[in-house]
Every structure is written in structure tokens, then in C-alpha cells.
Amino acid sequence: MTQQPTPPGAQLNLRGAVDLGALAARSTRREEAARRAAADPGAPAPRSPFVVDVTEETFADVVQRSAEVPVVLDLWAEGYDQGAEALQALADEYAGTFLLGRVDAQAEPQLAQSLVQSLQARAIPLVAAIVKGQPIPLFTGSYPTAEEIRPVLEEVLKVAAANGVTGRVEGAPGEVADEEPAVPPLHAEALAALGEGDYDAAAAAWQKALAGDPRDAAATEGLARVGVLRRVHGVDLATARAAAAAAPDDVAAQLVVADLDLVGGHVEDAFARLLGIVQRTAGEDRDLARTHLLELFTVVGTGDPRVVKARAALTRALF
């Protein structure tokens, strides 16, 4: 069964785009392939930079990335992936006008179940587009030929353009550097300002770095940390907690306490508070809590076990 995407002139029901900064969709399998290639020149080449493996931990990042570049999500399983090569070849042909995210249903059963249920699919493979977080079912049950997929991709790109999503996937799988690179001048400026407690100067330096390179992950992380410190500076903890307790539906008050919990080392409490908002609200309040939570993930570090656990919970809440 094949489903066509939303007509190109239609506007998706979108709620507040999120600035993704330098969120990178790095795949464990790609990294392993790169290491194998370095050790064995005869090993298979690393996957195209326009294709990523999606896990439960990285799914929320991929959804957020759809605010700047269209995402085509391919839910597949071994034995049911005949014809998938056409989709991957088209990802290379289109050279970054969309990102192809592949979900292994056998390796990621919970994520696969959530996708099948949310898209009301009856079989895999399942192919869907995501534009600004909104899913568009494309194909289910089998892979069409490249000639059949191409016009559907063109429709997806038109829908994306109509909603302001015109970014591109850039770069290739990175190589391990032989030496640690020198700290860029703006990074050094930001760190020096932060050491002096000048949050405004630190933020300005990070912003300049991002203006020069929007994919500067270190600058994104630095700006997120400064953002938390600026928000809690001068805030009285007892007063903030009392205000949040008195108004549990006041999202702004809850965000303040989440920041204070994070700075105070109560990371899981901060995440739980924001996840609760995501689960019980909708519209702008939900988007505000989700965006804030992703920023705190950046501050703590994407590899932190507490972030991995909370990110999985966020995925379940969103889908």
C-alpha cells in the first residue's frame, strides 16, 4: 500500500520550530564502520553522510532536526528490506536535500512499535517523512522502485519548502584527528568570560562562534550552559520552589525550578519535572517544555546515562 504525502501547497499543522543548533545525528554503526575501514582498507566504506541509523536514544534529535532539513524515516527489518537500496541511492542522488534515517525494527523494538502505532501502519518496511516534527506516511509493506519513489520525494520537498524547511545535510563521516585542535579564539574568549562570571560576554562569544559556524557543537553546548546560568542568576531557590508548588500548571515557574535542580545537581529531578509537563500538556506549553528539556540534555551531555533514559521517555511521550 502506498500513501501520498500532503499536497505541496498545504501547510502542516506546525507548532513553534525549534533551533536545533549543531545537533548531530551520529550513528554507532557508522562509527564502527569508520574504525573498521581505518584498520582494514578492504572493509566496506562508511555509509553516506546523508544516511543515519536511528535508535531510541537519537530519535528525538532526528525529529528535532526535521525543523531544518526534511527527514525520510525508513523502518526496516532483516528479511523485509529488499529494495531499500533504491531509497539509500536516492539519498546520495539528492545530496543532502533530505536526511534518510534508518530504524532497525529488530534492534529497536520499542521505537518500532511506537512508530507503527502512531502512523497506523500494518506492515514493515514503513517509510515516512518528517517535516518540523510532523509525520507524513509515504509507503508501507514494500519498497517501490526508484522511479516510483522519486516523485514522492519531490512532493515531500515541496511540502518542506512550503513550511520553510530548506536546509541541507552537509559533511561526511569525520576522521579521527591525530592531534587535539587548538581552542578557537571565540571559544577561548567565551571560556575566559565564563570563568570571570560574565555570562553576557560568554553568551555573546558563543553566539559569534555559532554565527560563523552554525554546526559548532561546542559553541551550542557552551551557549546552552550559559543560558541556564543566566536564568538562575539571582533567583531565590525557596521562592522559586514555592511559586512552582503553588502553580503546578504554570510552565514558566516549572522551568525555573528545573534549571535550579540542574544547577544544584538534581539532574533526574529536573528531567522528570519537564517530562511531566510534556506528558500532560499540549500546544505551546508542550513545545516549550520539550525545547527546554532538549537544551538541558545538551548541558548534561548526550552520552550521560540520565540523558539516555530521559530521552527514551521523551520519545515515548512524543510518539
From TrEMBL:
<dbReference type="InterPro" id="IPR036249">
    <property type="entry name" value="Thioredoxin-like_sf"/>
</dbReference>
<dbReference type="InterPro" id="IPR011990">
    <property type="entry name" value="TPR-like_helical_dom_sf"/>
</dbReference>
<dbReference type="Pfam" id="PF14561">
    <property type="entry name" value="TPR_20"/>
</dbReference>
<protein>
    <submittedName>
        <fullName>Thioredoxin domain</fullName>
    </submittedName>
</protein>
